Amino acid sequence: MATAGKVARRAVGDACRRLQQQSRSTSTLEHSSAQSITQGQNRVVEASLTFIRELARLRAEQVRAIGGAKATACLLGVPLGHNSSFLQGPAFAPPRIREAIWCGSTNSATESGMDLNDTRVMTDVGDVPIQEMRNCGVEDERLMKTISDAVKIIMDEHPLRPLVLGGDHSISYPVIRAVTEELGGPVDILHFDAHPDIYHAFEGNIYSHASGFARIMEGGHARRLLQVGIRSINKEGRDQGKKFGVEQYEMRHFSRDRELLENLKLGEGVKGVYVSIDVDCLDPAYAPGVSHIEPGGLSFRDVMNILQNVQGDIVGGDVVEFNPQRDTVDGMTAMVAAKLRLTKIMDVHSGRLEEIIPLQSTHSTSELTPRHWSRNGGRAEVSTHFDEFHCRVLIRTAVESLKLVISNQAREASRPSNAVCNLQKRLIVAVKCGVLSLIRCSS
């Protein structure tokens, strides 16, 4: 019996050791696999930011080469919709807004006369590839940081200022965080919305589109938060507003508040003014393409009057919550979102505050705008106002960006996408523009 007991104990001990070895081996494999996935995610995120960085650098060099701009609106798309509590259609909004901007049904001038064909008024660095990163397993915290990093990249390239196309309203938090961190202090926020979006954590999600302004106020990113157009607010929304000292202007009192709102003076003593427009601030008669339809909202002209009269240095902004899946067939809400974007930034920001200096040339600067690069098959006129220095800057920047795109393509060892092919064509056009201008300067 003793011998049998020893054998049994030995067998059990051997089995335990084998299990421990297997467990260690499995743990090592799992750790190695997790590490490999993390490294892959890091490469995807860095590649995404590199693309935006090079585009922002090129756009800024082009604007500086032309000269005369103190600040230029720079579009950045953030197609994020998964933090919506109802529908996720806002993820499809950025390209639809761009399409409305350049659709040709109207001219390229804003109400105050700013010309969108002038690259010093507006430029574009494309979209943050949100869905591609999510498909790689990148979680919300990392996504939010990546959005912030993209905004900082834009702000690092003078004279560009970020103008973000959402996406749901959760994107405002990382954008505003980036703006205030880059500027070194809080801003005043003018927020148009049917909802206060200030729940502590709606449905348990701290990054919910209904909780973004709670994160903004907790982080100390705003000195004043003015919310205009509110008409769907519960007890928590009011309590949170009182907690953070938010100035909530509800639609039921709009006739009383109109004069005050059309004469706002913001940003003094802080780093500037940030404007966030949730398209559902408008009555659905003006903008039916939203996820949360709330009757009794602002008219389009109400919003325009407030924006065009605000006094302050606009340092950035966003237009969010446009849902193309609920828009009319003719894209009515897309055009509204585009017009709000142009009014808010081009007229208030680039126009009255920054005063674009006119070129002393009869030639158009439109060859440097994304619209004409994409629509004219890479053809461009060459402006004669470039001096030799600016020509060399344009050539160097375009060549460096082209080399980066080609080297990234070689590392991937795969057929380039249409977007990459189009970028290569545009960079080649920029090189040609610079070379031909240099020849003209020398002749």
Automatic annotation (TrEMBL):
EC class of the enzyme, as a word: hydrolase
Keyword line: Arginine metabolism, Hydrolase, Manganese, Metal-binding
Sequence similarity: Belongs to the arginase family. Agmatinase subfamily.
GO molecular function: arginase activity; metal ion binding
Pathway membership, UniProt: Nitrogen metabolism; urea cycle; L-ornithine and urea from L-arginine: step 1/1
Biased composition (Polar residues): 19-37
Pfam families noted in UniProt: Arginase
Organism placement in taxonomy: Eukaryota, Viridiplantae, Streptophyta, Embryophyta, Marchantiophyta
UniProt source species: Riccia fluitans
Annotated GO biological process: arginine metabolic process
Top-level division of the source organism's lineage: Eukaryota
UniProt xrefs under InterPro entries: Ureohydrolase, Ureohydrolase_dom_sf, Ureohydrolase_Mn_BS
Name of this protein: arginase
PROSITE patterns according to UniProt: ARGINASE_1, ARGINASE_2
Reactions this protein catalyses: L-arginine + H2O = urea + L-ornithine
EC number: 3.5.3.1
